Amino acid sequence: MGSTAGTLGDKLTRSEVGAQAYVEADIVDLLREADAALNSTANATSNPVPQTLKRKSIKTRLVDRLSPTKTQEPGLPLYDTRRPPSPVARSYQPSMSSLPLSRAPSVLDTAPNMPPPGEDSPSYIPYRRPLSPHRAVPGRPYSPTRTSTDYARPPASSNMYEPVDLNGSPRPGTPSSRYGGERPGSPKRPLPPAPLFAGGRPISRDSNATLDMSSIPIDPDDPFTEYGDDRPELNSRDSYMTEDTIADEYTDMDEKIDHYGPAPEAAQPRRGARDAVMTKKEVRLINGELILECKIPTILYSFLPRRDDIEFTHMRYTAVTCDPDDFVDRGYKLRQNIGTPRETELFICITMYNENEIDFTRTMHGVMRNISHFCSRTKSRTWGKDGWQKIVVCIISDGRQKVHPRTLDALAAMGCFQKGIAKNHVNQREVSAHVYEYTTQVSLDSDLKFKGAEKGIVPVQMIFCMKERNQKKLNSHRWFFNAFGRALNPNVCILLDVGTKPGPKALYHLWKTFDNDSSVAGAAGEIKAGKGKGWLGLLNPLVASQNFEYKMSNILDKPLESVFGYITVLPGALSAYRYIALQNDHTGHGPLSQYFKGETLHGQDADVFTANMYLAEDRILCWELVAKRSEQWVLKYVKAATGETDVPDAVPEFISQRRRWLNGAFFAAVYSLLHFKQVWATDHTIWRKILLHIEFIYQFVQLMFTFFSLANFYLTFFFIAGSLSDKNYDPFGHNIAKYIFIFLRYTCVLLICMQFILSMGNRPQGAKKMFLWSMIAYCVIMAYTTFASILIVVKQLRDPKQPKTLGNNVFTNLIISTATTVGLYFLMSFMYLDPWHMFTSSAQYFALLPSYICTLQVYAFCNTHDITWGTKGDNVAKTDLGDAKAKKGNVVELEMPSEQLDIDSGYDEALRNLRDRIEVPEPGLNEAQAQEDYYRAVRTYMVVVWLISNAILAMAVSEAYGGQHISSNFYLKFILWAVAGLAFFRAMGSTSFLIINSIHSIMETKLKWEDRMESKTGLGGGKKKFGKGWGNGGSSWWSGSAISSKVSSWAPSSWSGSSLGK
Asked: Could you tell me which residues belong to the region Disordered (predicted)?
């Protein structure tokens, strides 16, 4: 042994310093062998044992040593087959294991083994693990009575994978479930789900008895000892983890505490989360364009019921570098155009700006439920189990910098978006839109819960177009119609806004309208105001008044216009168009050319009239469809297609919304009236043209009442409230009613003047209190006017001298006209089986009616110069995504996620953000942008003309009938009976619409019943039904042409059409 030691000593002098650890390990092994030999010799002398039995006892002792219930027997050699213990276990015992190591070899792994000190040695305190993964409380001193057995190591986790539950907690691969966020040194990579990987992590073999068996003496100032860390406690003294309020010795409350510098400004990585590692890859361009097929995240892949096609396993990214009008001409293709082309029957457009994830998921989940209904119609000739292949959903985001981050997380959770692959430039060409294509099989509801095939969700073909710049909603529709629509050539296009929740069958009813009638070019659904949970939203007067307004519009206005065949506006929140009807003619003129004309209007190239008209470009599109040359398209209202949307619940948002609506509607109505002669160039029948002219007369009357609404309101208040100044009608006596009238009269005049000043110099968001108090004052004036009307009616009914018959008296002019208007509202609401708004919202609407006139209308007319959409200054190209530069020919070099775990980390981050829902700061308000002097000047001229016209009317009528009684006031009679007459006209149109729909439903039911009977009896074969052939081996009970021949005699609109499916 001496010679061996000498040899090793010579070897040590000749070796490098780094080999000392291995030499020491050899010395320790030799010493152990010698010790074992001496022990065996002594045992053999005292108790002779056969050689075979000795080997067996050694093996038995090795097994006992590894048992957690046994301790090491003296005299045994320290052979260890364990993996290296955790650094926290504080063991320097060398490892003899053949298992693979989880880290590189270290000098500490081969440190010499020394016997532990005795218990009476005061120079060393062994390391003890705390009771919990948290640090010990600074206020509690160390107790010497505690032993190492009090701090048992927690058992190793046997759960090798995360629980497979996307909606539960903990979520797959999150540090909060597998790796405690408080444990130091926890790995940042998320764990993969169980179905994709096999194998397991070796079980730890540490036991309570072997934790401190190889401890060595450590210096008191060793930083790895229990008291060697001089850093202050990370936990706050006021946190839940502390048991007292005693400050530790390292904290001085009288001195200024310096932490770790100011808070970082940029986004910081979350503890336990792994950021995607970006590496450079060479990608070959396709026809000079950047098109990538990206794998979907592993967690999403593990939950997919279908993985048999690339559309389910890969997301396709396309960087579009051209204008939407050149999308097809430049050779761009969508997945539906690649391989075996798919027919697109229904193309759904969802436009969004900066809406949050709740609004987005409410709309998207509603759409996916509707698509599931299409696929559930197994007996349909158009739809069925694979009907989802005929439907494409296109989401268009207006501006990459404007989209809400949580909305992107929701899209990423569905597999329709991945970070890190989009680029600003491709071959030095600026990217105008980022297009992501994927067929998703999961949906997120408004509670951010995943829904899959178990809830009836079917695959949905998704196109997510994220525009690089904010170019307003009209440009988004140009991408939809001129780029993607031209590539897919769909039959029907449906437009939705983010925030609108379509009904379970709303999209089907819209599509069925086009299938029944081939002359329908557009259809509008019923928009319902969101009333909140339990209708608690109706406690807000603004919400209640808008609920009443929406309901009466859907009961009186839309049905009337549908009967005539021309609906003035198809709401962008829920409407549908036939794609072929939108196309331009061979000269380039048509509905779409006029629709997108407003996008190119700038400066003095367009007058204020044209600019404001295109604020309601959907109204222009409706008119161009009906008045299209050599065509006979009509527009329909579909009451069964419902959609719920949130309405403004605050005054500033309410005023700003109505400013664009009122201006656009007013100028679009003027445009259609000035161009009514275009109807004679269409192929409409003579009866249709007559009906359209009747509708034009009705619109002209409505337009006149809108223009003079300010004067009419003042005159109605002046005459009715002023009637109480008469001593015969004064309910208070002593001329109190006269003084109240004088006060309210001047208050009304001053409020109107103040309204003009506010509207021309302030934004609603900056003067919301003044706008609010003015609306409250108008409510008081309206309440007093209503009180005066009721009092006059009561006086008339009690006075025996006043006639109670129809004629030229107060009873007829005031009571009958008013009762007719309100009574028709109740009657039509009951006829449509929807009367609840009359009891819950009518009072709020009539109270706010003066505000609709004096606040909304004044603000709209005073801001006719404001035709911007907030896109000015967004024409600077962004470079934060990186560039795709050509390297060799069509090969480009990109930075993108390097491996599957990088894709998984982005998906895990999206799920975590949706779960935690960390508040995203709202973007700051931009300063008001300077407007052109030309627009401001024309705005001033228009407001002056409008104000003078209303002032002349109010002064002339008030002077002419100021001293006369209400019974002899001709103008008041005209106003009251005109309102009643318009209400009666709307009620007649609404009743006609209801009758036509009833006849339609009865005939459909009859045809369906007869078709069933024929299929049971086997008869049919060429049988005639209402002049149509009924045979050829098929059942076409739903034929729109069959219905047309019977309904045309009653219906003023054409029902002719062809049946394409059910």
From this structure: 40-200, 214-237
